[in-house]
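Help!! Second protein's tokens look totally different from the first
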Amino acid sequence: MSAVLDSAVVIGLLDPDDNQHEASYSVFRELVPPLYMHPINLAECFVRHSHAGTISEARRDLMELGIIPEPITHRNQDSWGEAIAIAEIRAESDLKIPDACTLGLGLKHPEAKFIAFDMRLAAKAREAGLTVITQQPEGLTAN
């Protein structure tokens, strides 16, 4: 299944010591590319690797998994359009900018599974009619 991914899911996958590692691994076993992430969310995934000097390796791993960096707006639209789209989603949803980016990408790809471990983001995605997979105390759940 194609999917839109929140950064926590990918961070958990890349870091075996992360408390979301097992849940992330479980999710990724079921996914089939394309796997979409907003560039802002990818940047969140690369912070730890920037400190460690392993961005190239992390990028390679994510590319091998089939992760595609994609803006909310069409690729040929300028950065003004992307900024406005993010601002509108943030204003309407009251989510922080990174979560607004993930939600916007989910709205762009409503056929894809929306995977987020943040409960507030997952709830906003459900309200928008997206199919959400998230981590609950009892394990992975889908709406």
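Here's the second one for comparison:
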Amino acid sequence: MRSQNPAMGLFVWGGIIACVIGDAMILRKFSNLCSAALFALLVTSAAAGAHAIVTGTSMNGQPLAANRVAEVELHFNSAVEFNFVRVFLINVKGQETRLVVKAGKTRDAIFIQIPLLKPGAYALRYRLLAVDGHFTDNLLRFAVSEPK
């Protein structure tokens, strides 16, 4: 039966090499290398799936209307710790304004209060803590246009 874990295959080959050559030093070095590779693989795969990622917004890719207060809802792939959510509005000049955030109807959602804005390009910079203990920092770009 073939192993599905490539790291396990490295350990087996390391043992075979050490037995054939008969040198414990080679086995130790190879084992250390395999252990480091396995650790790196486990750490990176855990980190990749451990962040709250936006899975949907109430904007649905559409621009917000200019000169109107809006409330934007963000949904994440993970529940978030609401007390550790910070959201900032960034304009084209790079100026940041902290925004009011409310808890969503479910633990994987938040509501963001958007102030009156002129037409243009903007971004929401958010930092939040997922319930699994990992922080997420990200930008969500959006546009504001004159109502049609």
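Reply: Different proteins will give different token patterns, so don't panic. The first helix runs from residue 6 to 21.
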